[in-house]
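Friendly challenge for the regulars: who can give me the structure tokens for this chain first? No prize, just bragging rights.
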Amino acid sequence: MRNINYKTMAVDFGADVAGGILIAAGTYNFAANADFPMVGVNGIALIFYHLFGTPIGLVAFLLNIPIAICCFRILGRTFFVHSVRTIVVTSLIMDYVAPLFPVYEGERLLAALCTGVLAGLGFALIYMRGSSTGGVDFIILSIKAKRPHISIGKITFAIDLAVVLLGTILISADIDGLIYGVIVSFLISIMVDKVMYGIDAGKMALIVTDHPKQVADAIVKIAGRGSTFLRGQGSYTGEEKTVVMCACNNKQMYPIRNAVKEIDAGAFVIIMESNEVIGEGFKPY
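First reply, four minutes later:
Bragging rights claimed.
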């Protein structure tokens, strides 16, 4: 019999509650009153809310059932069970907790910004615990499982754009509503990617130099990080070269670049964005 990790369960449940509150606040307290379309299954539920006055959480829960059944085999039993828990928690929060807070009645642009930021944070918290809010999330993560090279944020933006267009036609029926809906979709995708990957973002440098040992020593002195020596060969001269590979945070890269210039003015330096660095000295597995 498998041991139950109550600490992990508590953290997962806490992420569901925190993420659910953020998503519910963005949807119910900001988007619903501003009359612009929302994204995902919540966006479809919001359409029903405006047309028929049905509870957003209840409709989202009912819509999730057939989608969950269709995606069960792709996503697996564990993810499915976690997501069912998340769906129930977020749906209850949407209908019973969000109405306890005041509804924003200010500028639509500010409402759109708050909706995108809050909902994006909420989705990211839930994704990071290996769960989802179901519905379109199941479709998104199913695509991610089949096409792992595509970021979740980009998949989310493409699918949610279709929901935004539908919501614009049925809810606001004006170009401003469409624009605000696109802003919300874009912000959610950006927040999801930044929270999930951007926290551990940094730089990676590939340095082709005739003085690799001195460069590596300078990197240790400046950033306290080791480097990796890669063997290369110049395509034109055929000369053997040593490439120093180094990963560091954004602040450390500038002094490293200056140090390389002082050591070897003829060094060839390539600096790239690194969305996430996992391993010793960085984020643990």
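The chain has a mean pLDDT of 83. The first strand starts at residue 202 and ends at 209. Your move, everyone else.
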